[in-house]
Specification:
Distance between the termini of chain A: 47 Å
Strand content of chain A: under 5%
Largest sheet of chain B: none
Number of strands of chain B: 0
Radius of gyration of chain B: 26 Å
CATH topology of chain A: ABC transporter involved in vitamin B12 uptake, BtuC
Shape of chain B: globular
Radius of gyration of chain A: 21 Å
Number of helices of chain B: 19
Helix content of chain A: over 70%
Oligomer: heterodimer
Helix content of chain B: over 70%
Largest sheet of chain A: 2 strands, antiparallel
Order of helices and strands of chain B: HHHHHHHHHHHHHHHHHHH
Chain lengths: 337, 457
């Protein structure tokens, strides 16, 4: 029985908790990509850099607050700086729309052209970030690092395996739940949300019924800004901030959005968790888990690892390719908010 | 014979004069280094341009195809390592044979079993156990290979042939990968296709990074043989010394003192050998570029090229006229990727080393796409022009930025924090330039600097 509990704790500690927090970050990112895709109808390659920009502003203000000795006690100061980051990200989104994307929308350009344009925007934001903050790795989480340390847990329960709970993970999960609830409530219950859904479903019909497209687009960018900034900051808080990482993060985010069904917000969230869990589960070495479960005579000799951790990145794409082959519209049929 | 319009002559003149200008300002060595990379970039751009400009098939997997070309350079030119083959060759052979058996078994099951459910179950069982068995042999073999002298070897090595053959092999490798990708993904809509090709190129690179028995992975392969002479051999070759003396005879004759004269001559020989090597590379690359350019233009003007344009402009109509759109898309995707693969092999040839971790999408996919868009999709001369201009500005952005920053902050003290910070981040301004160039071109000249010629034929 103890062995069984131990094996469960191993799973919780190394797969489930990291999976949920990484999945939440991906889900928030994928939700942003999905919003742009559903309303503005293009694949936004700049999304990773927008996330990075939000995180950067948050870091700058975190440093400012720290220098002024303003803090939240056991909570990281970044939470205090997050609203500033969100506002800055929204402004960035709206500026890039006004000066860049709007023109192509009025021209009714094909989606590929808009995707190219977003690559240009990606380069510009990327440059701005590097010029302002450099390319160093930055750790900006302060306050209490662990809610529960592995040792504490061992003493508390008397089990062999420890369960560590980082505060950044708990914060990630809580904020994600809050934000997702709010987003879905907004889409389902408010008038603006309903008009957004109508717009994404059938643009012409929505225009005929008097929905103002500029207003819908404006609201979309605000939501995208909030989601991107929060996702970027949470990722940085959890894993430390590094400007180069966010370009690599774009691909798992796209994978999540497409796997869930691009254009479907619920699908994006599910896709985020699917991608995160498969990345972690496929590359985790299950030896410890089996050592607890199986009698020592048939204990596995190897690591019992399906793929080496080096291929973490490749897993999300393999899933993406498989989903596109079997069910091109994703798990939840996409294209409508 | 193709004729150039006036603006095309202008473009060619601009390209040549850029290098002459840099040659006089920063030295011929710098100019030739930039020229070599420009030619390689131009070839990559032509590869992408063929699939995107001719047929509208998007290819964001440039990085992966380049890496395949680079792998070909290693596998062709590196001398074979017999110990590694002895250590793991048999295991690898067995696992490869088993893989073939597995594929045949799956194909056989697919062919004979009609009922869908049984087929799925049997297939997954066969694949699962097959992979388990293959893994056993494969992991043992690769482990043994990687243990052979890991500091300098630890991989299988190559065939030990002249590296120039790898340019063709690189094309074939890339074409093979492109065929698989195309079979899987070409039915998708263009923006999905972009994401999928980008993702698969990441997979290709991560395989090269981590399969050390094949490519030495992150430990990199260095010291690949050159197709051109080495500087040190040139400096000791009589004919080269005579050539340098002959070329600089007027300058040397003015120096009367013998030891001074020898000193000057030695310096000239050292400089000259570097330039000679780079020039030989440039000539080799130029030949490849012109061959590809000639055939690309020929193909574009041929009935096949016309069919490609028809497919690009209206897929449904082309399909209705009896053109096999799916097949043609696959063909052009493979051809484009093959050309990119050739460029990849040339890139590794030029560097003399293969660094899988150096393949990053920003540098090797998106920059190439900026070249295509800026140059003008659907026009081969435009592609070359785009490759030259963008690579040139990518390199020359840093000196230019330093100059601009120094001019703007001329009133500030040299220790001013803002000025120092800006000067520290000079290398990042090139991303800003690239983004701005792309955005401006897409806005004000969406067909590129040298647009595709409209043909009424």
């Amino acid at each position: 029985m103890i062995d069984f509990l131990n094996s469960i704790i191993v799973l919780l500690n190394f797969i489930i908790i990291p999976g949920i927090s990484y999945g939440s970050q991906l889900a928030l990112g994928a939700l942003g990509v999905t919003f742009v895709y559903a309303i503005l109808r293009f694949a936004n390659f700049a999304h990773g850099e927008i996330m990075s920009f939000g995180a950067m502003i948050t870091i700058l203000f975190t440093w400012f607050f720290q220098s002024q000795n303003i803090g939240l006690g056991i909570l990281p100061t970044a939470l205090l700086a997050l609203p500033v980051g969100i506002i800055a990200t929204i402004i960035l989104c709206i500026i890039s729309d006004k000066f860049v994307f709007q023109y192509y929308r009025y021209q009714k350009s094909v989606p590929v052209v808009l995707a190219m344009v977003s690559i240009g925007v990606m380069f510009v934001i990327n440059a701005i970030i590097r010029i302002i903050i450099g390319t160093e790795t930055i750790k900006f989480s302060d306050g209490q690092k662990f809610i529960m340390k592995a040792k504490q847990f061992k003493v508390m329960t008397g089990l062999n395996e420890g369960l560590a709970l980082k505060s950044s993970q708990v914060i990630t999960i809580l904020i994600t739940v809050l934000l997702l609830t709010f987003t879905f409530w907004f889409l389902q219950k408010t008038k603006t949300g309903k008009s957004m859904r109508a717009f994404s479903d059938n643009e012409d019909l929505a225009l005929l019924s008097g929905i103002n497209p500029d207003r819908v687009v404006f609201t979309t960018w605000i939501i995208v800004g909030v989601l991107a900034c929060v996702a970027g900051t949470l990722y940085g808080l959890d894993k430390s901030y590094k400007p180069i990482i966010y370009l690599n993060l774009v691909l798992p985010i796209f994978a999540s959005a497409i796997v869930g069904g691009i254009g479907s917000p619920f699908g994006a969230v599910v896709g985020g968790y699917v991608i995160a869990f498969s990345e972690i589960m496929v590359t985790y070495a299950y030896k410890k888990f089996f050592v607890y479960l199986l009698p020592s005579s048939i204990e596995p000799s190897g690591l019992v690892q399906i793929l080496s951790t080096d291929y973490k990145f490749a897993v999300s794409f393999s899933i993406l390719v498989i989903v596109l082959l079997i069910r091109p519209s994703g798990i939840f049929k996409g294209r409508v908010l | 014979m193709m004729k150039f319009e006036r603006y095309e002559w202008v473009a060619i003149t601009i390209m040549i004069s850029l290098f002459v200008f840099v040659g006089f300002i920063q030295g011929w060595s710098v100019s030739l280094v930039i020229l070599n990379m420009c030619i390689i970039s131009a070839i990559m751009t032509m590869g992408v341009n063929i699939s995107w400009g001719y047929a509208g098939v998007i290819n964001f997997g440039v990085m992966g195809f380049l890496a395949m070309g680079g792998l070909a350079a290693v596998l062709v030119s590196y001398p074979p390592i017999t110990e590694s083959w002895q250590a793991g060759g048999r295991g690898l052979g067995i696992s490869f044979a088993l893989l073939v058996v597995l594929v045949i078994a799956v194909m056989y099951i697919n062919k004979t079993l009609i009922q869908k459910r049984n087929r799925y179950i049997l297939n997954s069982l066969v694949i699962f156990f097959g992979i388990l068995i293959i893994r056993h042999f494969y992991l043992n073999a690769t482990h043994n290979i990687e243990d052979v002298n890991p500091a300098i070897a630890g991989f299988l090595g190559g065939l030990g042939l002249p590296i120039i053959f790898s340019w063709i092999v690189g094309g074939l490798f890339a074409a093979g990968v492109a065929f698989v990708i195309g079979k899987v993904a070409l039915g998708l809509r263009s923006d999905y296709l972009a994401i999928v090709t980008l993702g698969i190129s990441e997979i290709v690179v991560s395989v090269l990074k981590h399969e050390e028995w094949l490519s030495r992975g992150v430990k990199n392969v260095i010291g690949l043989k050159r197709p051109v002479p080495y500087e040190i051999d040139l400096q000791n070759a009589d004919w080269f010394i005579n050539l340098v003396t002959y070329l600089n005879s007027s300058k040397l004759n003015n120096i009367i003192d013998v030891s001074d004269r020898q000193q000057v001559l030695n310096n000239l020989i050292i400089d000259g050998s570097g330039i000679f090597v780079k020039l030989s590379y440039a000539i080799l690359f130029l030949i490849v570029m012109l061959i590809i350019f000639y055939f690309a233009n020929k193909a574009q003007l041929s009935p096949w090229g016309r069919m490609m344009r028809a497919i690009r402009d209206n897929e449904t109509a082309a399909n209705a006229m009896g053109k096999d759109v799916v097949k043609q898309h696959l063909i052009i995707f493979v051809i484009g990727a093959a050309i990119v693969g050739v460029a990849g092999a040339m890139l590794v040839t030029l560097d003399g080393l293969f660094t899988p971790s150096g393949y990053r999408p920003l540098r090797f996919t998106f920059i190439i796409w900026i070249m295509v868009i800026v140059g003008g999709s659907g026009n081969n001369l435009g592609a070359i022009f785009g490759g030259f201009v963008i690579w040139f500005s990518w390199i020359e952005a840093a000196p230019l930025t330093t100059f601009i920053i120094n001019q703007l902050t001329v009133g500030l003290e040299p220790t001013n924090a803002l000025k120092l910070h800006l000067l520290d981040s000079v290398p990042y301004f090139r991303y800003l330039f690239m983004g701005l160039i792309l955005l401006l071109i897409l806005r004000y000249r969406p067909k590129g600097i040298i647009p595709e010629k409209v043909r009424h034929s």
